[in-house]
User: Fold this.
Amino acid sequence: MDSIQQLNDATKVFLEQQPKKEQIELLRKVIAYHEKRYYIEDDPIITDREYDILYNKLRKIEEENPELITPASPTQRVGGGIGGDFPPVKHLAPMLSLDNAYTEEDLLNFDATVKKLCAIGAESNVVYSVEPKFDGGSIALVYDQNNLVRAATRGNGELGEDITLNARILPSVPLHVNFEALGLNIVELRGEAIIRKDKFEELNKQRSLDGAILYANPRNAATGGLRTKDPNETRKRQIEVFVYQVAYAVDSSGTEVVGNSHFENIETLGKLGFKIPHQEKKLCQNIQEVIDFIQKWDAQRDQYAYEIDGMVVKVDEIALQKVCGFTSHHPRWATAFKFKAKQATSTLLNVEYQVGKVGSITPVAKIQPVYLAGVTVSSISLHNEEFIRSKDLKIGDTIVVERAGDVIPYIVKSIADVRNGQEKAIEFPQICPVNHTDTEVRLIKEEGESAWRCPECVCGAQDLQRLIFHVSKEAMDIDGFGKSYVEKFYSLGWIKDFSDVYQLDYTLISQLEGFGQKSADNLKSSIDKAKKNPIHRLLHSLSIHHLGKRASKIIAQEISHVLELTSWDLARYTALKDIGPVVAENVIQWFSKEANVQMLKRMEAHGVNMQQTEDDKPLISATSGALLGKSILFTGTLLKMGRKEAEELASKQGAKILSAVSSNLNILVVGEKAGSKLKKAESLGTVEIWNEDQFIEVVS
Ligand code: AMP
Assistant:
């Protein structure tokens, strides 16, 4: 019974029916299993929140039945384990867990408990230091007479694993620090090893190119990186260490030196050269300020460069911390407010198939609904057949689902360990799964494409998708013309192709249930506005396979009227920069069909613009601007904007964009990890070298 399935409702009921002793034993076994997966194997199969629920349940039963507590219970030590590959070392002060808070009420209770412990009146305020709960791996750093002598993982809290060699590689871990100036002889600091989200993505991109298995998340990549046997591998993962606690500090006589305020201690560490949270932390004068600050971070955490799973609230005054003390599990002067889980486990119930506007078949997983970071998720795109294979998904599987910053949920993995043999393989269809007419259409997969496609739609499913796309923001941008309107008008037979959109009967629309004169009028004015769109929007809205936004713009620059394309041949298209033969063939084919040409003519008759507009014409380089007459080149990774955006900004200011360093280059803008271009520019000696901020200052 040592699997995730202990968490389902039936098991919970079963558990609660057992005598307390059996409940405790079962919970201990399950918790031990999940701790091993998390700490030893770096491959957790339940979320932190789910683990906390199990752990808190065990703790509660033990509290109510203290005679059943044994030293081997997970509650009698802090989480973690010793892997065996690294020598164990004893921490100078135990490395504990944190107690958790999930609601505002929990925080108010925490504040009340602190006041009680410190004999402070309920009407007085306790000052708290609040900082992010970095979601990486914890690390303890010991400095002896200013030198880094040891680094260790948390391990089981008493004993950690000695990972000094790996830690010495990390640029954010100073090897020599002037602690003596503060009268400190031996210091143990606590910190979190973490990988920036964008660097993590780069790491995985590279792994994907190398054909390696992708890391599940930045935390696993960081904790794994601390524990590799090859320090070079640690270096490659670009791990950074934030320090968040002075755990132990003594002067040369061995007397403890504690300082007055936690917040000040962290600031001092920052001045000494450690990486610390800056505007991410706050000294809050009372618990209400704590709640407000946490709410602010909950709302903005997706934009933060690092993964955080909550905020840690610490009593700021060290003297008060001493009064609060510790349990064997956590300090009583701190609590971790955990943000809503972004991961959860669920069951894959079924796979349905949707047909897209160019016939691509997208498999969609129907899952047991789960509540995830504020919404209930029951459907998740599986992208294509290859995705299903790479995740080894089967119907009936227990799956881990995640909702990351971009709000689109996705399946992280299936958990093969808990299969019971009833799971069914997913058979990708060979004929169009949406088509219910008598004509069978075999799906095709073109070379270089990942999706199966229905090449010749006989059932109308693609027409509907094309209409939905045609009116969407991406394409003709008809404000207020949502998917449900398209479906309604389509089902009524009012719109069969694009031309019908421009000859709707607004009197009939105003009489539809749920409509009215006002909504019909609004729709009319949005459609009238869209009729004047530039032709690059119109071209893109036609859903020609491979003809994206950019290619539509390139083609629109070259024509004065859309119907000119009926006479364009392959050579005309491929002579254009960035238009390849595949897109060219598709556009040629589309314009060779008489029905399509007739449809465009009808659209024109209904007032849709087919002539090149100012917006379609090529950008003429600026004739003035802060960079007029200068040539510029960007190298390395820009942090505040994309490369394209930067180039556009520069050309708007009159600059000419170059693609290589030469004696013609005036300015080189250098992002992160700039390489040979920077070296070459430096050696020329004639190129001005700017960082991203200097560039932004000039162009803004
Ligand atoms: P938990 O493992 O959930 O009990 O939480 C304790 C862990 O949170 C510590 O061992 C640290 O690795 C981590 N942590 C991340 N940020 C902080 C922070 N600002 N203060 C204390 N612990 C933190």
